[in-house]
Amino acid sequence: MYQLSPSILSADFMKLGEEIKKVEEAGVEWLHIDVMDGIFVPSISFGMPVISSVRKKCSLFLDVHLMIEEPARYISQFKAAGADMLTVHAEACKHLDSTLYHIREAGMKAGVAINPATPLCVVEEVLGIVDMVLIMTVNPGFGGQKYIPYTTEKVKRLKEMLKDKNLDVDIEVDGGISKNTMDLALDAGANILVMGSAIFNGEAKENAMMYQNRLEAYEHEHSADLRR
Ligand SMILES: O=C(CO)[C@H](O)[C@H](O)COP(=O)(O)O
Ligand SMILES: [Fe+2]
Question: Binding positions for substrate (predicted)?
Answer without folding.
Answer: 7, 65, 141-144, 174-176, 196-197
